[in-house]
Predict the 3D structure of the following.
Amino acid sequence: MKDVESDFWKEIFTHAQHRNMCRAGATRLTYADSAEQIKDFGERHPELNPVINDTGTYVTWEIPVTNTITLRLFIQSQVKGTLLQYNNGEQVKIADAKFINNPFPEIETILSNRDQYEKDLKREINEDLENNLLSKVSGEFIKAFLIKMCVGKDTTWSILPQKDGTFKVDLNFKEGQKSVVVDSLNFAQVLKKLF
């Protein structure tokens, strides 16, 4: 099963990276000027309590984006951003991106749209759950239909759900194998033609 939340945030992160590359008048961010940017950002968002590790040659800066998603920047001669997801008590990397320009404006955009992102994500999760349920129910109807059609016949079959919500059905008749792709609306019509 796909991870809707990680896919959602990967897309947000990819768009942030693209905006960063295309931003007119943007300047690079290096370790030398990172302290000032981090301080300015911290003053605008004191509630975030970033985790900062400054080694003297590079700095890592980490903030929570949501309860389960964390953004980490590694700033040296360039900036690498990483999105991490808490999953079953572990922090798992879900995306990396290099930012050629100072990424703090894009981070501000992500944070300012966080409420809308949360609503959009909730909607996508609900749609995914509905689609998974529909797929499971459809698969069971197709199985029941095949069992009925194969009674008394020397035929075996298999069903493989596809990513687009359809099903690949392989039928092994005495005469040979046939494969078709069906969906929840057309399976009976398509499969009847094969028997």
Notes: Helices lie at 4-22, 31-44, 104-112, 114-150, 187-192. The chain has a mean pLDDT of 91.
